[in-house]
Specification:
By secondary structure, this protein is an all-alpha fold. The chain has twelve helices and no strands.
Amino acid sequence: MRTEPKPSRLDRIFARLDREPERPVLDVPRMTRHRVVLFGATLAFYLTIVLAVVLTSWLVRFDWQAMLFRPYQQWPEIHAFLDYWVVLGQRGPTAVMVTAWLGWRSWRQHTLRPLLAFGAAVLLLNITVAVVKYGLGRSGPHYATDIGSNEMWNWFQAGSDIFPSGHTANAVVTWGILSYLAATPQARRWLSALSAVVSLSVGLTTVYLGTHWLSDVLLGWAAGLLILLALPWFEPLVARAEAEIFDLRDRWRARRAAPATIPASPVEVPVALKPRTSAQEEPTAPEPVSTAPSSVSTVSTAPEPVCTAQEPVSAAQDPVSTAHTPKALYLAPGPHTARSDRTPVTPVGSRRPPQADRVTRGTTTSAHPIAGG
């Protein structure tokens, strides 16, 4: 009895994704003119913040004033709450929560686009923010030593990777991707407001705790917003990756469903048989001639005719053929007839020796010759 293999959890997930014949058409954001204008303005703001910090402008002086004010000492009663609230900007916990939500969305919408779009956004965020962080090498408020300086180019000191704020940029991208992937305009508006509140509060919390300068938070907001505004340019790549994943899944399923093939045993090469030559033919033994005297006056001494058509001789009876024939014999390709279907061959003449005293059956003779008389 043949039983079907039990589907795995991954098979059940893909089966749920393929339950409907066609996946729903989702509203994929496009790079419109309005979005291009916002992207350009945000990029200009980003470059302005970097230039203001590098040139040690009024923004750096404001950073020092906010740091020396020490908000965590002015309002210590909210310190414990904000220690937990700032976790909403950490990459690990937020990535787990948002991935679980988008995974459920992918399962319901029969598409991998939410997960792939979130993965592309996080990858772009880590690359762009890490390059600027380690390229500028700015030290944080807890590691600052020269009051009024921008604390730049400290690549070999501890805490020199805080510009821009990773917590702030991660909060903008992680919670903003929910509004970017919203299915309806109303949900997009509500999620946009929620992500803005979370990202702004997380950025200001880092300033309250003294882990970032205010300019770090401003640059983190701009960095996260640039990623969200640039995502429509990567939608074709996301769609291509989704198609490749489903094609790979289909090939994997076809390979599992294919029956196991038994390897065929090697077939020996057939040996071509050659006709036997006259030198290999077995000489025909002469017919025995009777030497007994006979009373018949005329005795035919002509030899009996030899049968020219002979039956095929088997390999066991023919020592010559077994000596020159390989062990494995194969017939030449072509139609063959059974021995019973062949036309019988009647030998010409008689093989029996002539006997004078034998009379043809059905005739009578009056006297028989007496031998020796």
